[in-house]
## 1
Amino acid sequence: MILIREARNTDVSSIFNLIKELAVFEKAENSLINTPERLLKDGFSNNPAYKCWVAEKNDLVIGIALCYIKYSTWNGQCLYLEDLIVTQSERGQGIGKILMDEIILFAKQSQYKQVQWQVLDWNQAAIDFYKKYDAQFSNEWVNVSVKV
């Protein structure tokens, strides 16, 4: 049985392990500079920077959905899904759907105007998954960032 619940500070090492697994999957492990200590501080302080749900099976964290509030000048508050990760050995069993449904329910209950996220253009399995949610894909916007 799969249990979806809000993450606790004791889940940080499991969360970080899934983030590392995603970095390897995306062939970007050298870009991962976050640490479990930083995840703990950023997510479980008095003013958390993110909210996270975990999928648990047999007392093991096998998936996460990590989100934060984003503000859109056009739409108001939105929920930004930073990462939806299910460990490789558990994919294809509906766990991602359960996590995504939880995120959408939370966004509706919180009266956010939309849920936003990004997906790599080569990750066809993820693209197909998101299409089931009637997700709107945009080819007009270019991702931009500055390292500071």
Note: The chain has one domain: 2-131.
## 2
Amino acid sequence: MFGIFSKVKLLLVIGSIIAMVAAAGLWYYKDTQTRLARYATNQALVENALETQKTQTLNLLQDIRLMSETINELNADFVASRQKVQELENTFNKSSNGKDRDFTDLALRKPGLVEKIVNTATADTFRCIELLSGKEPTEKDEKNAKLKDCFNSSND
């Protein structure tokens, strides 16, 4: 009674079990391959992002270095300009021979003299601006001691 039908049933059950195990194995393999491909894509994206981040970090460091150098130059220029302002402030309180004077008192006592001094200095300043802007110095400019600094500094 358990003869041939039992064997066929047993073979069908065993075959079904083997087919299910094979199907589960195939499903597991395909799912694993899909996950590995997704992980590889994600890894490539992460590596690309890291490389981009490294490049941007290096660019930022270069920019910071450049800004630092620029700030140092600006600070040095600022100190130099403050010294020039101080020299200019002191200029009014010293006579041409280097003696101390009260410029306000002089202006009140001798307005014509002060006007002449200011007009001459203004003309020299405008000529200095022309020289600094690229105008060629004339022989008269070269003889004027006050203007020598103007065209000498424009050649720096």
Note: The mean pLDDT is 86.
## 3
Amino acid sequence: MKYIFKISVLLFIGLSFVVSSCKKEEVLIDGCTDITAMNYQDLATNNNGSCIFAYGIAQGQWDIETACESLSISIPFFLDTLVPLNDLFPNSIEIMGVGEGVVSLDINGSTILADIANDGAVTIQDDQKISLDTGDFGILDVGITGSGNIETSTNGDLILYLTIVIPATTTNVPSCEITFSK
């Protein structure tokens, strides 16, 4: 009985050692494993280098296409004029990084700051202004707000809302959509 117990213990230890040394093969799922990337994949277990970072791709020279309503300025009994806002924006914009998740856009000499989230969402910061040369009315300071998204490394969109106040006039509040492409 003593020998059976010793043999059983030795067999158990040997079998435990053999079983514990067996390695389960891990299944690798390729994808982006960085949670700060726009295309993070929570099921990915192997980073394949496909990560896209919004802050990095936002920077650089972007061509823009504007679709803006015209600004209508009216002074009763004196002047009615339309200012075509599409003509006031440049054909391209340089976007530069200024800090963690913050970029600046230069629009006709006015610097606009915007926040960029990891998922590519872009939000114009509060209290931003641009200067627009309206011709008859000269240069106007225009409040600007807006948001948009960086879609890929080569395109995105940004919808701007302009606030224009001209004393003693009536003005419309035009909207302006800008499409970015590299």
Note: The radius of gyration is 30 Å.
## 4
Amino acid sequence: MKRLDFLAVLLILIANPVMAADIDGRVAWSQRVDMSTPVSGMVAEVLVNAGDKVEKDAVLLRLQPDRFDAALRSANAVKKDAQYKLKEAEREWDRAQELYERTVLSDTDLQLAENLLVSAQAEFAKAKAQQINAKRDALESVVRAPFAAVVLQRHVEVGQTVVSRTQAVPLLTLAATKTYHVIGAVTSSYASKLATRQAVTMTINGKSYNGILAAIGYETLTGTDTYPVTISFSAGDDVLREGQIATIHFP
């Protein structure tokens, strides 16, 4: 009876093989970005250094604000004047239509009133666009963290002039700290048994992390016959370093 039970279990295992393996991997950044600004100016403040941890939307750097503030005040004034002239043109147009309907205004005068209205509308639209651009430039003169990150490199100092007319200048280099990747390698036969989004665990510095299989490569790693696999995971409050050794535990 016991032998029959053993054979039954063996048949089940053969029909449904358990795929388990541990492979080596290394920690990689899920996001690494060079921070810059599309506007030019002089650096007034750099609030971070290499190695600092920052939260999403934290201010990293400010350009000298005087020029941007002046441009915004000018754009606001131009828009206010254009808005006043547009209202005047609208009133004149309404008055011209009324007089025209009473046959006390010529076709030429009606056309002139319409031309003034169209011109005022165009000037207001232009002034509004200038105000939007001035607001955007003022906003972009302040560089903020796009996500929770660690500062890898600082490329700029206070007093340095940033010229971004033709090409954005890297100011700071950041790497995301909420989500990391671990990159490993598997054989072709093993890769065919894997599926993206499947749960995976990892051990890094003796600590266990839960993740998902984010990608399975279709091209071999240079000089090998293995394919890269990418695990995506959250490290919580832990800050890891690129290149740290990890062990990936496939179920």
Note: The two ends are 32 Å apart (CA to CA).
